[in-house]
Amino acid sequence: MERSVVDYTPGERLALGIVGFVGLAGLNGVFMYGLLVRPDLISGVLANPVALAFVVEALVLTGVLAYLLGKWGVSRIHWAWFVVLSLAGGIAFALPVVILATARRR
Predict the structure, then answer these.
(1) Which residues are paired to 104 by β-bridges?
(2) Distance between CA atoms of 101 and 106, rounded to whole angstroms?
(3) Cα–Cα–Cα angle for 53, 80, 1, nearest 5°?
(4) What is residue 3's three-state secondary structure?
(5) Is 60 a domain residue?
(6) At what angle do helices 49-72 and 91-102 cross, to 10 degrees?
(7) Cα(30)–Cα(47) distance, rounded to whole angstroms?
(8) What spatial distance separates the first Cα and last Cα of the chain, rounded to whole Å?
(9) How many domains would you assign to the chain?
(10) What pLDDT was estimated at residue 23?
């Protein structure tokens, strides 16, 4: 399958970088802080069916998005790396990293 390469403007690259940083340091940072400082909250999430549904949905959509990114040829990075990056830092971190790793500079 032929991979298409998309050009991103410097402003778009900056915006993707900011989203990735906010995803890793901000959103994932809050999760890691809660996990380390208040680990009892995780059992509360797993006991709450609504919260558990959101967790399961995020895991399912991570797999679907990884498959689609590979199918659409958006990235040269293997789909498994997208999953690893998503689990390590969240989708808001992984998606900009995968896009910027493949994108050409103007």
Answers:
(1) 7
(2) 14
(3) 115
(4) coil
(5) yes
(6) 10
(7) 20
(8) 24
(9) 1
(10) 94
Q: Is residue 1 part of a domain?
A: no
Instruction: Say if 70 falls within a structural domain.
Output: yes
The owner of tokens 């399958």 is: 1
- Does the predicted TM-score (pTM) go above 0.85? no
| Domain annotation covers residue 3 | no
Residue 56: other Cβ atoms inside 10 A: 10
Pick the closest to residue 66 from 22, 45, 97, 38 (CA basis). Answer: 97
Q: Give me the residue label for tokens 């380390």.
A: 36
Q: Whole-angstrom Cα distance, residue 99 to residue 77?
A: 9
Instruction: In whole angstroms, give the CA distance from residue 57 to residue 100.
Output: 25
pLDDT band for position 70 (cuts 50, 70, 90): confident
